[in-house]
Structures
1.
Amino acid sequence: LWESKNWFETIGIALAVFLSTFISTLSEYGSEAAFSKLQEDAAKIQVNVKRKEGIIQIPLSELVVGDLVLLQAGERLPADGILVQGHVLVDQSALNGESAEMTKFPVNSQKSEWDLLEKHQLFCGSVVTSGNGLLVVQNVGDQTFYGQLAGELQEDSLDSPLKLRLSHLANTLSKVGYVAAFLVAFSDLFHRLVINYHYQWDLILQELSSLPNVFSHLFHSGMLAISVIVVAVPEGLPMMITVVLSSNIFRMLKDKVMVRKLIGIETAGSINILFSDKTGTLTKGLLSVSHLIDGEGKAHEELSSFRHHHPFVQYIGLSCLYNTSSVLSGQEAIGGNATDRALLDFFSKQKGSSLNQSWHIVKFQPFDSVKKYSFVQVKNQNQEYHLIKGASEILFPHCNEYVSSSGKILPFTKKYQVEEAYQELTRKGFRVLLLAVSPKAIETYPQSASIRGNLIFLALAVIHDALRPEIPLAVRTVKEAGIQSIMITGDNKDTAMSIARLSGILDSSTDRVLTSSELAKMTDQQVKDILPHLKVVARALPNDKSRLVRIAQDIGLVVGMTGDGINDAPALKKADVGFSMGSGTEVAKEASDIVILDNNFASIVKA
């Protein structure tokens, strides 16, 4: 029976060793497989290229030398190449450590000072911070300058703070175990040689003179010491933590949450305050133009009631097709922001949406998050127009005339009624953009003084973005967990408040709603005083996010921040946990700890 018991113990020990080795191997294999999958997913990043069949989206892995790549603000350059069209501002800090952004000019420019290679050469890994352009690919993959650097510099991954602390704990317990083993061995020998012989030194010396007996006693004490060490030293603790964290990463990936840094898992559960975007995070992010409102207050769901060559339709078409950072690929709008794509989709799906004459862009300034509008100058052989698109409350005061449904430019007599309609729409949660025509060039763009009183009202584009159905429950779950949610959005105050009420973020009479301008007038101490009651920041600027993160951390809160744009990167980096969106820019993802692949607030709650 005793022998069979020893066999059971032997089998048990062997099984434990096997399980430990198997789990460790499985964990490492799983991590390697996950990394390989992420590398494959990275190769599937879509790139907008111009080929014979037109503008198409292809995976990054299919990009070849000679391709023409469309560049837009917020994108990471997929390859080395030469700029042949447009002007872009790029951040090359990933390559040269220089924080200053570089302006790149097209190689076919006539100015001699632009003929230097550095003025038109673009490198993989750089980020386009503003502007648009066309890149001819010269090197891809490992042949790029960035790829060669990556090959030379292999960086070992660092352990998470939790794993480091647990490793330290394991070392401490090991030292305690060794001390305990020595004491147990000494106590066993003392008991066998001294206490058993009742402190009779002659008997003790007689026992010590027998080598077999001494060896037996030492062997027994040694076995006890080894048993204590085996039990006390937690060799498997760091491994088990790795297994747990790895399993968490895999589980979170199934929930559309990709963890870039293990510290993100450790900190996410300790968040006290969460700053969240609205569009695409609380809402579906599928913007669509429901209708247009003209200067006479009439709503137009379609433009089919107008003749194809009608001046009103031509203005609308030029605004949608050219005052945008998006482009058409077949019948689908790609690139740019969601608002640009919504307007482009709206016009392209109208009957006879193509314009009769050949137009080209003379000057284009993309949407500016500070001034809240974009501008384009277009012309053909006979005509030239200056079109502006942006926030209604910014542009509305400067409109004194309007383009009538008959195509004439008339005094804006119904301005008050149209403005009332706009305010009612924003209260219902619609996003409203104003489309206008300027009779002269806006030379000092983006200085708002240059548009003062110079605009001819064209139409209000009413854009709808439905709230995600799961958001109210997710917001309630966050509140029950003791986390304060604050919505930060570029929308106006009424639209922001409407969405905040529908989602449950705004549900009390003591809740505060601020605009960016109101926030700017407050001192840090005043913001700290109202922060527990703050729920919405409307018309927010990028630096508002960074400021709110800093203030919240100053009062000891653990801060979570969501973002998707280049301007969000500083706030994502500064926050305790940065959540970037899967559809966001590469620079935002680089700055974040966790990527929310489906852009959903509910997935942030799961994290």
Note: The chain has 21 helices and 26 strands.
2.
Amino acid sequence: GGMLTLEARGKGASVTLLTLNRGEGGQNKVGSNLFDVLGVLRSLEVTAADRYYGVEQRFSRVADFGYSKNPEETFQKWGGHDIALEDVVRVVRSFRPDVMVARFSGTDRDGHGHHQASAILTKEAFRAAADPNRFPEQIKEGLLPWQAKKLYIGNVCGFGAATCPDENYTLRLNTGTFDPALGVSYAQFAMAGLKHQLSQGAGAWTLDPGDRFTFYKLVDSVLASGTQRAGHEKDFFDGIDTSLPGLAAELGDEEKKAPWLRPELVKITEDIAKAKAESAGDTSHAVRFLGDAEKLLSWIIGSSGKIENADLSAAAKAELKQRLTEKMEQMRAAVNLALAVTLQAVVVVPGRPGESGEADAFTVVSPGQNFGVRATLHNGSKYPLLAASIALNGLNDWQEMPKGSCNPIPPGEDRVVLFPLIVPNVPSTRPYWHRDNPESDSVNTIDDPRYAGLPFSPPPLIATADYNFAEGAQASSPCEPVLNQVHSRLKSEVVAGFVNDRGQQEKRVLAIAPEFSVMLEPGAQVIPVNSGSATAVKVQVSCNLTGAPNGKLHLEAPTGWRVEPAELAVVLDHRGAMQSYQFQVFPTSLTEGRTQIRAVLEAGGKQFTEGYSLVKREDLGSVYYYQPATQRISIADVKIPKDLKVAYVMGAGDNIPIVLQQIGMDITSIPAQKLATEDLSKY
């Protein structure tokens, strides 16, 4: 974390953190969520930490299946070596890094087999990503091969080591360096982010000021001989030209095909330097130079721009476009900050002028729901913003809804646009991955390949604002062009505000969910072979739409089993309504094995066969987690002596005692810390 923060915030590098799994197999020190729900929670925790580090986050498909003794076991559980490697290569080809760094060493020093596997895969991906014969389907999709220049590994001197033998490392970084903009050291700032990982017990961790060294060893490189120092280095980028004009040098012989490129990159660099110099007294003075740089970038990378028309290879064009598009986004972000221009998009509930409690807030809406979005573009500068437009963009079947105006926005004032909406019949906002059986599957299924690798699916609605600005300009008529005007853009997620149970205001990103949620209780059950009694199955149904249609609920049971009643009427006609329904299931002809019961709600011509719950925490974002409305049943041939008494030493979040009690065992759960005082002789 300290290294990531130093590189991203201290040195201004673009950094992506690839985490292979989501921690699904770990323990939960703050709640009862386990398996995939825990994976969702830990994904929220790490993305909260990422905001401190200043990095982008990516994940692979493989899951945490619990502690692994070695990488061989890890790869075996992950269905082979290449599943995870393919995902690592995809991220490398997408991000196209100059330098790759493995947190671990790929040796026994790393302990956990998952840790070792991550470093082994990183080393292989360094070369594999550049080979068009490796994972050629990615090339067919449009990803081009990419060769990073340098590869480092970590954990070369042990975790937290303050010293390291010279021969063990190439680079030593001091993440304990104080940063005046952050007000603390990079390592301390990173620790503030890491504290969000409460499920792993990080909330109480602290870090004192002072030097904190971390060591890395260069283990592979494609730099030409003489371009990097022998022995110790001062930076990951030693031997690499990281200046903007350096992109021209990256073209090699192809630079001759674009002789205009280097001079224009030099001009952009000069504009950036002028912007920094001019912004010392008044940040808005930087905008003119940033605007000049942005216009030049637009001319270079536009759809009919100079790169597109140049006689360059596809790989060279792709690399230039990606790097310069990143610069364009940074320019626009700098313009927005320099002018103190902000955009907010908030859900508006019809007939409700203020914010309500969480239960009544429209944080999640369903098809057919009426609501509004109020977008506010604020001009915090001392100059008017010229012609501005605001649009609402949605995934799937949402249509873009632009609303523009040539009227300037005076200094310190807002432009407010209201979008009245009805939710179309669109897919719900959910994780784009799942496992059919979290207790046995070690690789996630990707349900929507568009989002593969991202922490979560994007939000369903995004507001976008475009505006023009010219320092000191006053438009004499509403749509009259102004010389030297700068164009910028900013985006905002649509959020719903509410007042929590402590009277504090909160905001949550808008989500879409089905009209009904259907969940079985319990989610798993064990039935002895010789059971002659009925089994009770509860189904909880909740409604998310006022005016929702009535429905009928029934269970789908194994062939030959009887269910009473055959169906139940469901009448939940207002948002937030919830009710439990009970069925009696009579098993017959039981033999050892596994089966399941499924609940089905039919309403309004649709079938609802899954339930959803909100995974949230006050310090994190939130995600709706979905699971099928099924009860997994294990039929066991168990004969229990009448005088048998069992004591089970319980770990965090274990559900084994529940299962044992279901088959009739007399069981006592003993927390591990009480073992020393418990009389075990009676068990």
Note: The first helix runs from residue 2 to 10.
3.
Amino acid sequence: MPMQTIAISATFTADLLEAPLAFWMQELRLPARAVVAPYNQVFQQLLDPSSLLARNAAGVNVILVRLEDWRGSAQDAEPDELRDALGRTAEEFTTVLLAAAERSATPHLVVLCPASPLLADDPAIGPVLRAAEAIVRARLVGQAGLYVVGADEVRAAYPVQDWYDAIGEELGRIPYTPAYFTALATLLARRLRALWTPPRKVIAVDCDETLWAGVCGELGPQGITIDAPRRAFQEFLVAQQQAGMLVCLCSKNNEEDVWDVFASRPDMPLRREHLVGWRMNWQAKSANLRSLAQELGLGLDSFVFLDDNPVECAEVEANCPAVLTVPLPQPAECIQQFLQHLWAFDRLALTAEDRERTAQYHQNAARERFRRAAPTLTNFLAGLELQIHVFEPGPEALPRVAQLTQRTNQFNCTTIRRTEAELRQWRDAETGRCLAVEVCDRFGQYGLVGVLLYRNGAEAVEIDTFLLSCRVLGRGVEHALLRRLGEEAVGLGLARVDVPFVATQKNQPARDFLERVGARFRQDQPNGCAFRFPARVVTGLTFAGEAAPEEGATVGPAPVEAGAEPDAPSQLLVRIAQELADADAIVRAVHAQRRRARLGLTPNLPATPVAPRTPIEEALAGIWSEVLGIEPIGIHDDFFQLGGDSLLATQVVSRVRRRFHVQLPLRGLFEAATVAELAVSVVATLAEREHGEDVASLLDELDRMEAGELVLGLTESEQG
């Protein structure tokens, strides 16, 4: 994956996102960097062709909108006038954003950020802000290449109690605390991972002590317990199944014992009809997972395996490293939160095919039974009553088309991955052409299962992408698609249909088809080969039933590579779910990653830092260390020589005000640029509040005394 740019534009100062996003990109091993556009220039970024967002051709554009920032001159208006003004601005914003997305192949993430508590709770203004937000949601949700994240999603996943920073807002238009920016960055990182990482497709789950408490073979169906954690776990599996994941059982058990539980326990949310496959025997679970992969026609890198037993998990990890193996935490009460933070289940969008996937696999099973009963392959294919519909996909089909380019590996001639926005650009280009294919038979709908992207060149129809779901291979669909392009070439007076092929570890079925129908037309090239079919030959292409599908509608065995690496190691995702599931823990981890030694930053720093001498100096040094990511901090180190700037100074002053409850101005840090000097300012401010007219004498005393000997009679809480 090449380096990606996370281009950020916000209606407020959003630079505090950079550090936690850098942390997550390093954790996930994603080559990406965050770049923040100038403050409150969202419209300019979307309209200016030379802006950061417009020039971002490799990555994602993130737009953070807090609608109250667009009140402008209407902020003192009556609620009705404010509602009209914000409504117009919301509509203008969505119009401009949709136009920008049309011009760009880069995905856009739009984050609707929370309003300040004072306005959100205002009975007149709060409803106005929510109405404007509803306009944005209604116009953007479901649009190709656009993904909307609401403040409620951040709050639900990573709640932060102290999230609003009134002081930061006043000083630098930074309305949120570092903890909230970290929570927001974490949710963005989850969305980015879902955008850039191939999705898992199958959940294989153990039974005893996983789906239920107890051993069904010993206790019987009425003896096992469906306690609250297991019920929640089963509900999670059902929700995943409804969102397009395939659910299988992989358990060391007697099959009849397991089915007795399913038949006798109506209190189980997970039902037999939710399952597409199972292996219940006494073989190694790694062998059973391989068997399930073969049956479903999927690679092992499509699987997530969940089991309560760490020994079983270790066996699967050793023998099927491509499987994402997840040991469920103990006690069982931790399972629900753990799964909510297991990023492998994140997805950006849901297509109609996702919702019907389990039903489609059940239909495949019915087809397989029919195939086995048919006396010949010809009888089987004739009995399917297959119907193939090739068409130009509209905007509503682009999410599924994009999904196919990102997921299809076996019959995929070039494996070029594309987002919805990139597909829209291809389709809307003057020379770009796009065809899709839907298939159905007597057993039901296969759905949208194939894609052709091509151009009509000077001499040939030039294919860019030719892919087909493995569920319909060996049915003649691939022949029909190629024949359709041959007919188009003949109609345009073009001589050939050119099909490039770039070999991968998984796309041998595509090459087998091309070799079978046109080996004599192959021409080798440096990066693969191309099949240059004469157009009139392709128009006469027929299907002879030469490749009957097996269980998973795949040609030959599904490619299962024992040594294939998953998109991210199991240990990483498990560690995130266990150790980085709340904002405070993530904040600590970000600080630990950013921490660097002070040595070598600048030659003007003292060689040996002077340690804090008072509680106030110690607290200030801690604030500097957190903001600058440096340790140790000496009381005579200059803030700006340590790498501080005006934005970081705003953070320091905000934290000092919150920590000591003093009205220290921003210029105070510029005038007192060391911990020792800043401590004097804090002491003076506290002393003035406590002693009034005695401030001058106290400061004179401060000049005469060492700070470590100074006693100002401050309250214990003010001393830290």
Note: The longest helix spans residues 79-103.
